[in-house]
């Protein structure tokens, strides 16, 4: 679809809204709250968050849908769209929406179909799904035969087919995604599109045998991945290829595929003993943490796949421990190319589940972010210019009062010479609206420790806060919570990070 056509489709969004069916009108409200920030108000993939995301959000009004059970050239079924919304796209910024009711997800499907339209030369809006029905091309799923057992013979057959179909030209001889054609691959919008790394990359349409069978059979619309239907390979050969691709998977990554969960409950046990505030304390070993999967908002090498979360409270304060594997500890940045490790918790302050990207105007969020660099600023040994560049003279700012340090005098938390806590306490009402609370409102304590290639960070706060912008904790009442981790070694900062879906934190009575 041309840029001009996309602009036309966007321009007629208001007119299109007037012709929406009743289900689409209902789905529109959910779409605007949870989807529009990425996919755009009119489905053009141009939401305000899109510039920070890769792969880019789907252009609904282009007519290209990658994850389908239908033959090449056909649109997806309602169930295809529903499954993508429900499951999300692992390894991308598209989360699972299981926190929405099934009815809401079904209604959003109808609104996505409504947005799937273009404008012809005469300025007439043409809906792809309605046109398909008119032309007798109603989406129908292809038949997937039962999966046969994996044998040495089928793996050898799969390897032969992998070579015969030239899969290695894009995906590489051992599936690492570095075939000779890989650097030049682009999608229909001209964006660079690396082929899937079968060794470690996330299968965004699902990792099961059936999922991979369909990707091979139907191809990925809008990408260089073609369909290999029955005219090219038989179902038996396709299954052999599926099993061979799965055999290329690195075992630790394969375990992450299996353990991935899209939602869950973090239970905070009530203690009669003193609250543990040491992240290395032995008490934490007695708890069974919740494994929270993380997805990158931008492609990363060896991204952090999950964070383990445990929580307790004593009726007055709550303590939440986050632990994740990070082979290299990155503290306070000194050089321009340095970035620090960090972890954040995002809470809904209304009890409702808002937009995952920093809440929305009707559902603000309270964000707690621990920063390795801030912790070093609180007296722990930290590198500085004179240690990183041993031969450089380091000048000291001779004025020590805040009158000559205007940012600190204005209350800018980032400009403080000392930090009461390594945790920044802030609020947001949508993408790009994060605001740090004033120093008087910074009431979240925290501490992190790096050992054995793992970070363990504990957050501690009173259950009831006098700050109206803070999340309030009441035993028995679940609070929506999401997690984010920044890996300094991967140059993570700001919106470049790995994030979780929404979960719920519930305190035991």
Q: What attributes does this structure have?
A:
globular; Cytochrome Bc1 Complex, Chain D, domain 2; disordered N terminus; 509 residues; 3 domains; Immunoglobulin-like; alpha+beta
Task: Describe how the helices and strands are arranged.
Elements: H1 3-11, H2 13-18, H3 22-34, H4 36-39, H5 78-87, H6 102-115, E1 117-119, E2 125-127, H7 128-134, H8 152-164, H9 168-171, H10 209-218, H11 235-247, H12 251-259, E3 265-270, E4 290-293, E5 295-296, E6 306-313, E7 317-325, E8 342-348, E9 365-371, H13 372-377, H14 385-388, H15 406-409, E10 423-428, E11 435-436, E12 445-451, E13 454-462, E14 479-486, E15 498-499, E16 503-507
Helix pairs in contact: 3-6, 5-6, 8-11, 10-11
Give a short summary of the structure:
This protein is an alpha+beta fold and 509 residues long.
What is the residue-mean pLDDT, rounded to a whole number? 90
Q: What is the CATH architecture assignment of the largest domain? A: Sandwich
Total number of distinct structural domains = 3
- The low-confidence runs, each spanning 5 or more residues with pLDDT under 50, are 1-18
User: Number of helical segments?
Assistant: 15
Describe the structure.
- The protein has 509 residues and is of the alpha+beta class.
- The protein is 25% helix and 17% strand.
- The strands form 2 sheets. Strands 3, 4, 5, 6, 7, 8, 9, 10, 11, 12, 13, 14, 15 and 16 form a 14-stranded mixed β-sheet that branches. A two-stranded antiparallel ribbon has the order 1-2.
- The N and C termini lie far apart (56 Å).
- Mean pLDDT is 90; it is low at 1-18.
């Amino acid at each position: 679809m041309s840029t001009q056509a996309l602009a036309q489709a966007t321009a007629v969004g208001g007119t299109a809204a007037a012709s929406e069916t009743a289900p689409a009108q209902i789905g529109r409200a959910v779409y605007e709250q949870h989807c529009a920030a990425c996919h755009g108000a009119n489905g053009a993939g141009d939401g305000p968050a899109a510039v920070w995301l890769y792969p880019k959000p789907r252009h609904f009004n282009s007519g290209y849908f990658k994850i389908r059970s239908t033959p090449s050239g056909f649109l997806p079924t309602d169930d295809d769209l529903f499954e993508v919304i429900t499951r999300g796209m692992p390894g991308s910024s598209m989360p699972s929406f299981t926190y929405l009711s099934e009815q809401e997800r079904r209604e959003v499907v109808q609104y996505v179909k409504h947005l799937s339209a273009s404008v012809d030369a005469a300025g007439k809006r043409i809906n792809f799904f309605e046109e398909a029905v008119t032309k007798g091309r109603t989406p129908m799923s292809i038949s997937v035969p039962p999966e046969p057992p994996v044998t040495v013979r089928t793996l050898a057959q799969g390897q032969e087919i992998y070579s015969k179909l030239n899969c290695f030209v894009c995906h590489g001889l051992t599936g690492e995604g570095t075939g000779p054609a890989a650097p030049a691959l682009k999608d229909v919008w001209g964006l660079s599109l690396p082929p899937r790394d079968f060794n470690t990359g996330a299968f965004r349409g699902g990792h099961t045998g059936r999922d991979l069978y369909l990707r091979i059979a139907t191809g990925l619309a809008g990408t260089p991945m073609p369909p290999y239907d029955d005219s090219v390979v038989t179902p038996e050969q396709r299954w052999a290829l599926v099993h061979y691709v799965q055999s290329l998977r690195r075992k630790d990554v394969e375990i992450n595929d299996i353990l991935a969960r899209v939602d869950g409950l973090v239970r905070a046990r009530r203690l009669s003993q003193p609250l543990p505030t040491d992240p290395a304390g032995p008490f934490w070993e007695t708890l069974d943490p919740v494994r929270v999967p993380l997805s990158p908002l931008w492609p990363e090498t060896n991204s952090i796949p999950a964070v383990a979360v445990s929580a307790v409270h004593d009726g007055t304060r709550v303590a939440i421990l986050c632990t994740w594997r990070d082979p290299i500890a990155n503290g306070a940045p000194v050089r321009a190319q340095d970035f620090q490790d960090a972890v954040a918790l995002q809470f809904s302050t209304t009890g409702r589940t808002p937009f995952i990207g920093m809440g929305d105007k009707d559902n603000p969020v309270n964000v707690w972010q621990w920063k390795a660099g801030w912790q070093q600023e609180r007296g722990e040994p930290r590198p500085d210019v004179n240690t990183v560049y041993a031969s450089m003279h380091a000048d000291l700012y001779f004025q020590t009062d805040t009158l000559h340090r205007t940012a600190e005098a204005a209350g800018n938390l980032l400009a403080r010479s000392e930090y009461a806590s390594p945790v920044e306490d802030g609020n947001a009402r949508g993408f790009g609206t994060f605001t740090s609370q004033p120093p008087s409102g910074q009431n979240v304590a925290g501490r992190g420790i790096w050992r054995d290639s793992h970070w363990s960070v504990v957050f501690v706060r009173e259950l009831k806060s006098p700050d109206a912008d803070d999340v309030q904790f009441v035993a028995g009442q679940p609070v929506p919570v999401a997690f984010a981790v920044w890996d300094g070694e991967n140059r993570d900062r700001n919106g470049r990070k790995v994030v979780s879906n929404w979960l719920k934190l519930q305190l035991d009575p």
